[in-house]
């Protein structure tokens, strides 16, 4: 499934200098790349990898967080964040869950991915958000930390996608709600 996006939001328009040699002769090569006329380097801009965790407790409730920081401060979210360099997406989602909730993930299952635009400090970051079902042991150890201001266990049928501040998470919640009921592993 592809999403139609305003091409003025394409990140290549924000880069004026070659990242290899610094030349200002850095011109559009095609819709995905820019080419440096000075050194010959062609740069292809790709989305950043981000992760999203769906954690379900024994009562079938989903773990949601209230965002403590911008963007979308104060809105609901699912635990997750950017994958770090030299880390797999699965390692990234486990790390993010630990940082935001204190919970240790013992198993992950890939569900689906969605493109997203994440505005950080006025800069639009194109991401590919990978949604995982994360299995954790004892959920009673959950606590809000890092950029999660509050943790909430919510019944899926009572969750309103519009309460989530990030577009891909809203779309992901709708998709997750349509997938219900989950098979418990």
Q: Please, could you describe this protein's structure?
A:
By secondary structure, this protein is mainly β. The protein has 2 domains: 10-44, no CATH class; 48-179, Nucleoside Triphosphate Pyrophosphohydrolase (Alpha-Beta Complex), CATH 3.90.79.10. It has 2 helices and 10 strands. It has helices at 89-101, 167-179, and strands at residues 26-30, 33-36, 42-44, 48-54, 62-67, 76-77, 80-82, 105-120, 123-136, 148-154. The strands form 3 sheets. It has a 4-stranded mixed beta sheet with strand order 7-4-9-8, sandwiched between helices. A 3-stranded antiparallel beta sheet has the order 1-2-3, with no helix packed on it. It has a 3-stranded antiparallel beta sheet with strand order 6-5-10, with no helix packed on it. It is elongated and about 60 Å long. The two termini are 28 Å apart. The relative contact order is 0.19.
